[in-house]
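[#protein-structures] MJ: dropping Beta sliding clamp here for a structure pass
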Amino acid sequence: MKFTCEKSILQEGISTAQKAVTGKSTMPILNGILIKAKNNEITLIGSDIDLSIETKIKAEIIEEGNIVIDARLFGEIIRKLPNDVVSINTIENNSIEILCQKSRFTLIHMNGEDFPLLPSINENMIFSVPQRILRNMIKSTIFATAQDETRPILTGVLFEINNNNLNLVALDGYRLAVRSENLSTDNVISAVIPGKTLSEVSKILEEDDENVNITFTPNHILFNLGYTKIISRLLEGEFIRYNSIIPEEYNLKVIAKRGDLLHCIERASLMAKDGNTNLIKLSMEEENMIITSNSQLGMVREELNIILQGQSLQIAFNSKYLIDVLKIMEEEEIVMEFSSSVSPCVIRNKEINNCTYLVLPVRLLNS
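AK: finished. structure tokens for Beta sliding clamp:
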């Protein structure tokens, strides 16, 4: 195998394929990137079996072939080379030679034939969504996936299409995030995608209106961005029926400026870091929300002007969960709905009804 390629193009390709290489695999070959040189393009593939990423880059192919190179070391070498044309060719003793200006590396490679095949996916039934919209939807929900593996289904995000709507849903037992977009498709789909996959997908998606084509099979999902394909297994099991968790009625409704509320809670949380609960208390009375927190080191009191409809209420939260939600929302004004001091709080945009967040309160001893 022998080819030449611009360093910046090669580096970007490696960086994309590398996102699927965890370095934790028991199969040594999966710590590498498969490089295929054919038809004046290089195909780079990284995989950990659950997630595979294939990306194609333009190069000048002098001799075709395929090899596997250690992903981390190869990535580091290319990144540190001068910004010029890189020449790569196989030499004896299962090695490759990397040349750029006056730099020369030789690296042991593995046999490309030993690299596991990607799942074959028939791209018949596909639907498309603009990359920018999907990227925003992932960022708006992924923070609420469970981090521990006790209930594996909750480490994923529900990908649901029905009634011309695409919904992404994540929950971890303490909070729920739902983000919706209108989509002109008759497909009906319900599948749970690992949070790790969507995290990597969001890094590859561009902030533009170019479409990403999505295909589902019973066990896999394929995101096709043209030059890059991301294939992931789906999580097995039934996702929680999230609609039944969201309260339909409330006794108290608060309209607040999102930025001001976020800053107040961030300041109050400085005092709440004593212990692991990050506990802050919210008191809603007339036109004010009083936010307090105290610890062995001292106390803090913040006051915020709000529009309040309904009874006054005292309720406590883990401040981290509120901050996560308020940081991700985009509108200037938000609506918070409360039923009681022990019931979940529902948070929505004031204007555009495209997201719903639910946060469980912390029970206080006297409530």
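MJ: nice. The radius of gyration is 25 Å.
AK: one more thing. The chain has six helices and 27 strands.
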